[in-house]
Amino acid sequence: MSEKSAKVRILDAAENLFNTYGFHAVGIDRIRDISGISKVTMYKHFSSKNDLILAVLNRRDERFQQSLSHRVSEFSSLKEKLNAIVDWHFEWFKSPEFNGCMFVSADKEFGKTDSDIKAVTRLHKSRIYDFVKGILDGEGAENSALQASILFLFLEGAITEAAVMGSTNHFVNGWQCVLNSLTLPS
Question: Which Pfam families does this one have (predicted)?
């Protein structure tokens, strides 16, 4: 087995376990068992559990950003792009691996005690806001910062609704209201 595949197997197992059970509830031994990697190999790639958590979060953020960006790039009008962002989230909520936002979970568990993890969780949320604002700016939308804030908060609330309530009723019904409240160029 190559070292790259060992690292990927560790990251995959850790991400799945952290997403399902949380960070504190999952120990290194469980990640080792699920990944089929020796403890020596694990520590060769990650010097501590926190290093592994940071790697998982950074990789997840990168995949999240790439996937969302790819989806939006398939559309040309501003309304289509905003709908693509919402549709992407809706599909995520319906996926079997959806357990809420892993970055919110990480911040809840470590935000007051680990500045590196806090920095990654803030960066992830900032990147989402910046992505939305960039789309609005690129299409010449007025008050793009305010409108990006509205959409960002709507998405964050939708993530919470889907995770806590197991429902997306408000999300689906609310999106049209949010879209109608935005001032979009013609």
Answer: TetR_N (PF00440)
